[in-house]
Each structure stands twice: as C-alpha cells, then as structure tokens.
Hints:
- Helices cover about 50% and strands about 10% of the residues.
- By secondary structure, the protein is an alpha/beta fold.
- The chain has one domain: TIM Barrel, CATH 3.20.20.
- The strands form two sheets. It has a seven-stranded parallel sheet. A two-stranded antiparallel ribbon has the order 2-3.
- The two termini are about 20 Å apart.
Amino acid sequence: MSKIFVDACKGLDTPYTPVWMMRQAGRYLPEYMKVRGEAGSFLNLCHNPQKAAEVTIQPLDIVGVDAAILFSDILVIPDEMGMDLEFIKGQGPVFHDPIKTEEDIDRLLGGEEAANKLDYVYDTIKLLREQLDERGDEIALIGFTGAPWTLATYMIEGQGTKTYNLCKKMMYSNPELLHKILRKVTDIIKLYMEKQIQSGVDVVQIFDSWAAAIEPGLYDEFSWSYMVEICDYLKEKYPETPIIMFPKGVASFIERGLVYGNFDVFGVDWGTPMALAKEKLGDKYVLQGNMEPCRLYSKEMTTKCVEAIQKTMGGKRHIFNLGHGILPDVPVENAIHFVSECHRVSGKK
C-alpha cells in the first residue's frame, strides 16, 4: 500500500488531503517535555536515537497527523563541522566561535567527514523506519535540513538575529567569503540528505527559514540556486523521493517568477496568499500550507482558515500545514482540532 502523504507529494489523487505541522514534535506537548527532561538537554535529545524516535512518533498518536518528521535540529550540521554550539535557556542557539574570516571556514570539517559525524541522525531514522513499519499504518517519515543560507546566518551571526547585519555586511562587502561558506555547507547537505534517504526517510524538506532576509534580486544567487543544486543532486540519485522546499517570507519572489527547480512540493508560508501561490506555482508544484500558526489559539479561527484553504485548493495538489512552526503555548486540543478539521473538509471519514 502506498503512503497517502507520499502520493500527495507526487501530485497523485488521494482519498483526503494529508496534514502535518512543522515543529509538531515539540514543546507544546507535555509528553515531549517529559522526554526532553529525561534527556537532560535539547542537544542530548537530538543525539539520543531512542528518545528522538520517541518524540518523533508522539504527534502521530496524540494529534493524528499523517506524516512524521524526524526530530532533530538544523544546527547539528555546523555543530558537527566543528563549531562550538550551545543552546542557552531564554536565548536559544549560540555559536561561541562565529565565522569572520576565510581561516575560520577552512578550519571546519567538510564533505564526507562532517556528514559521517551525523550518524546519530541516521540511527534515529533507521529506528523510526523499523517502528513505523511495525505499526503498519503507512505513515510517511520526513527528513529535513536547513538551507545553506539559513545555516550560514547562524554560523556568521553566532545566534539568531533580527537584522542579519553581519551576514549582509559579508554579502555586500565580501561575497566571495559568503559563497565559500555556502559552498562548504551545500556539499555537506547533499551527503547528509542522501544518507537520510538511504537510512529510510520517504520525503525530505529543505527549510530556508531566513529567506526573507535577502533582497529579491539577490535571493537566487545567495540562497535559491544552492537549494536547487541540492535538489538536482538528490533527484539524479533518488528520483522517486519527493522533495519539499520551504522558503519563508517569499511572496515577492513568487510574484517575480523566481521560483524554479527540480522538486515536488512548495511550502507556502502564512504571509503568502494561497491563491497567489496556486496561480503562479500550482500547475508545476504541489503546494503545502499555509495557516497562520497563531490561528491555533482559536478553534473558530482555525476552522475558518482551513475551510478557506480547502476552497482555494479544492483538495487537489495540496498538503495541509501551518505557514510556519506551531508555537510552544498552543493548547494540544487546538492542534488536534486543526488536524481533524483538515481531515473533515477534505473528506476523510
């Protein structure tokens, strides 16, 4: 039996429109917080295949989503390249040795050497593959990575940022160095995604969380072209594995016709009208999204949005999701309501 989510990614007809949520394995679930507490820290949880698999599966049983997404973090890549990563309470991820010079990037591991250090991710996937297959419910497993640009912003800024001034300063005053960082990260991501597929994921998603930080005229050069290169590499070797691209905050890029590439699903962020995405991209790509995550605070507003998206998409070439990640203080019952409403309007009995 084929997996409904995988079929939907390929644009095939499905009995109903599948749904999952970005960050669905996370802090809004008390069960997740219990396992994270047992692990001792966020990074410890990422590094523990048994516990990472456990929290990956939790949303299937608790919320009723149609796909599981591997529990990990985008920053495990620069961490295993040799950067000094720490998750600080109230501050988030911090690199204590941000990249400032060519020597800084030269000292980091690259290629196979870095990709092989992520073996705990591949072990988690293998364990999940076994557990999901034993369940027999045809749930798809999604692997993922951060886009090269998004990873580079953390590596250069040293932490999350609202201004991106350090990476933008490099973009405009030393683009060669930025491209060197992007090249090194891209080459690792290709191998990392390949190893995830070999380990058992059914679909991969590339998150460009900070796409909107780049002006539209430069987005292709410093981000999208690298993402497309990763897609080309994977599609040549694994043509049957669907790829989802999710660049956040790119309505202007869509309008200007800057979206292209050999992938299957385009993740629509909540700031992009679904009708616009359908008009510009719907014939070429399956669309995923795009409810504003804060609507989850209200069941009524959730239902209104789900019905509106269904009306726009008509149950064709679509996957329900949020337009970004679920927030930690959303009531679990509201997340369950979102999933059940997606199933209701799309015809699941």
